[in-house]
Amino acid sequence: MSHLRLLPSRLGAQATRLLATWGIPERSWCSRSSGTPAAFPSNPGEGGSSYMEAMYSAWLANPKSVHKSWDSFFQKASQEALHATPEGRPMPSSLTTTTKLVEDHLAVQSLIRAYQIRGHHVAQLDPLGILDADLDSFVPSDLITTIDKLAFYDLQEADLDKEFQLPTTTFIGGSESTLSLREIIRRLESTYCQHIGLEFMFINDVEQCQWIRQKFETPGVMQFSIEEKRTLLARLVRSMRFEDFLARKWSSEKRFGLEGCEVMIPALKTIIDKSSEMGIENVILGMPHRWGRLNVLANVIRKDLEQIFCQFDPKLEAADEGSGDVKYHLGMYHERINRVTNRNITLSLVANPSHLEAVDPVVQGKTKAEQFYRGDAQGRKVMSILVHGDAAFAGQGVVYETFHLSDLPSYTTNGTVHVVVNNQIGFTTDPRMARSSPYPTDVARVVNAPIFHVNADDPEAVIYVCSVAAEWRNTFNKDVVVDLVCYRRRGHNEMDEPMFTQPLMYKQIHRQVPVLKKYADKLISEGTVTLQEFEEEIAKYDRICEEAYGRSKDKKILHIKHWLDSPWPGFFTVDGEPKSMTCPPTGVSEDVLTHIGTMASSVPLEGFKIHTGLSRILRSRADMTQKRTVDWALAEYMAFGSLLKEGIHVRLSGQDVERGTFSHRHHVLHDQEVDRRTCVPMNHLWPNQAPYTVCNSSLSEYGVLGFELGYAMASPNALVLWEAQFGDFHNTAQCIIDQFISTGQAKWVRHNGIVLLLPHGMEGMGPEHSSARPERFLQMSNDDSDAYPVFTENFDVSQLYDCNWIVVNCSTPASYFHVLRRQILLPFRKPLIIFTPKSLLRHPEAKSSFDQMVSGTSFQRVIPEDGVAARAPGQVRRLIFCTGKVYYDLVKERSSQGLDGQVALTRLEQISPFPFDLIEQEAGRFSSAELVWCQEEHKNMGYYDYISPRFMTILGHTRPIWYVGREPAAAPATGNRNAHLVSLRKFLDTAFDLQAFEGKTF
């Protein structure tokens, strides 16, 4: 080792820098036998000479004791050094030669690494040639020019023709183990610096990095057959001519076309083709309304063109209920044969509002559900594709929230292919003002997703990248991003004037040759197609469009049901006839209740040690079951368990739902002595029950609620619930509530049975942990406050059918039990908003008897007064209507004041749709009583603004309904405990002051 003892310390430092760049862990520097370093420097950047000596010494003693890359390196260096003198022994002059050889090999390997890490920064990605995709014109100093590169690595021009050993971390050599430096640089430039820019070296999995390197570095890998090129050209023709046809026929209509990124259609079709080839049977897509949504419907999903064209007819009549939506928000579901693989494939494009990325978690939830129902735990049959815009991908937080669900056990869809239409502008915002990261795709790095940037004017590069992306997803079951760097030919929409704000860009765009012509000229010049064949392909598709346009004129009525993205075949009919608008009783037999209560009180696994505090809770459940009573948690357990027995899958998701935010639920038990050993007793209730999924979510509302909405979309035969940690936390998911849940049926004829559990109650907890904002949900309810309804048979069910969602605030565990079961037993699906309690979870009076839950019982929309006041209604002076927890405050106060016979209390369990019929009965029963609405919320919040006009409609404006509660306020609750108690005392005093409203008019 004497000749290596003379190596300069800078060589050791360069070697250790190379190791760090390679990502070789420190354990790889150690002896394989002992696993301990031999006098290795603690700081690899210093003491490099002793480090190199120790490494070489170890290698001389045993070549297998060092990493295999060092073994190869030392063999090569030693052979060349020994051949440097006639005697075959290294001399002082040959020591310099050896040193130079070592330095040069390390330098070349560093150079290779530099291209792999930073080559994308100099790739030619912008089709316009005027912008840098990474927002930075700086070129890394080690990649500028050949001369600069050589100087950076202490190499000379004379070294360009020297042969160098290739490391195992590159595939540029193909079957060759050595290449000249000139050829190494040429191949690296070809792989990393042309129309494809690769970001993957941040991935901390060597196998995955090697896989990507092999796919892109192997010489000649990007080759296409004549047939593949002709197919690509035909798909480009369809993509571009579809947009041209719409532009000719409806020149003044917005359509948010694809011009500038026409390659996206063959890109998506390639992903689907490759995935189908690898066994995928169901692909669920989500995309914004921009970037050619109609084109995707026509040429990817293969929706009938006449169905699309007839949407442009302004005289079209709507045959379906609801408001409908603009054509470029609608979804689609289609089963067809994939002509490339000759396999059946189901494609669905999920309806999406103008909130560009809001559909992302919805698609993931629907995908997860489809995988669950197929038993596709590994995502081998069902997958998702998400199309994004560059500005929205970087700017909207739901993208990040969705990425962070990608690897969570209860939320993973086993990989998504993300396609970013990077037209380098956000409406009128320059990308340099729209993001702080180099690329719009940098958010994907948080989950180690490889990112493939590609120039969208190079169709073959795009198709190859998309094929690799699909193969990656179906090999590693991980997310992957394809960044199509393109441009937007017509501005934000077809009516926009982009020259106002991007004059230089659009001057270049106006000169830009369309990608179809570029690619057609290329294929014609190389003899793949003839000009005549190309023109015939165009004429053929134009003829298809014209014929469909003619047929579209015969479609005078719009059926939105042709645009369903999640059909539920067979759900709405029985033997071909529409289901009866009735709901059977929601109670169950006492045997079932007892069995569930017993199981909820026990641990079904032997040797499972639970927390002592939980033992007390289980004993309490057993005691309640024996006494035929339930509290809130046990009622929920019985609702879920009885549905599982009936084959209904139940899924509960949200922050802390396994235990319950208020430590009341405990659906997942944790062994106190074995880490991560858990038990879900609910899954051990019945031999052939449906599965129960309960999962703590990430700390996300927007993304997780969207996910659960998508999950509920897949099947009507499941109870899917999302629980907010506190009710007001739903406000960070308001987009999902407003755009999908409240309006989903009206816009997209999309029934959905999602249940929102929102803890609510004024209990002195401050403004952020009190109100679930019931006023917001009630304001969006679509029942008419001024329309006196006709009380037909089954009015309660028909009223539910006509509403957009159901809003309840249950005051008893039995009500909660019944409303959950009713959600499944109804002949249709509506979203259900439940304001759930906090203090009532353990309130001694908030208990229900089995008698209120057994067979024959049902949900009570209104719970009437049934005490002393009910026996002499004519003597009742005041009838107080209320909802939820405040009822128990009122009962206690009434009793303390001795007014049981003079004041009646009636509870609204269902607030919307408003129970007109039952309220009319109660008001008539106490016809001489003064009517009061009492709520604990402030007057400008809560329920009063919703219930007041509806009471007036029922009463014909002949009797007032007086308000009792807190005064109007800006914040939903006080943060001062004493102020809370003072305001509570004040409105309770008013509620039972029988002279409070004397002399007042309404």
Automatic annotation (TrEMBL):
Its main location: mitochondrion. Transmembrane segments: none annotated. GO terms for cellular component: mitochondrial matrix; oxoglutarate dehydrogenase complex. InterPro entries: 2-oxogl_dehyd_N, 2oxoglutarate_DH_E1, DH_E1, KGD_C_sf, ODO-1/KGD_C, THDP-binding, Transketolase-like_Pyr-bd. It is an enzyme of class 1 (oxidoreductase). Keywords: Calcium, Glycolysis, Magnesium, Metal-binding, Mitochondrion, Oxidoreductase, Thiamine pyrophosphate, Transit peptide. It catalyses: N(6)-[(R)-lipoyl]-L-lysyl-[protein] + 2-oxoglutarate + H(+) = N(6)-[(R)-S(8)-succinyldihydrolipoyl]-L-lysyl-[protein] + CO2. The OGDHC complex comprises multiple copies of three catalytic enzyme components, the 2-oxoglutarate dehydrogenase (OGDH/E1), the dihydrolipoamide dehydrogenase (DLST/E2) and the dihydrolipoamide dehydrogenase (DLD/E3). OGDHL/E1-like isoenzyme may replace OGDH in the OGDHC complex in the brain. The presence of either ODGH/E1 or ODGHL/E1-like isoenzyme in the complex may depend on its tissular distribution. This is 2-oxoglutarate dehydrogenase-like, mitochondrial. It comes from Fukomys damarensis.
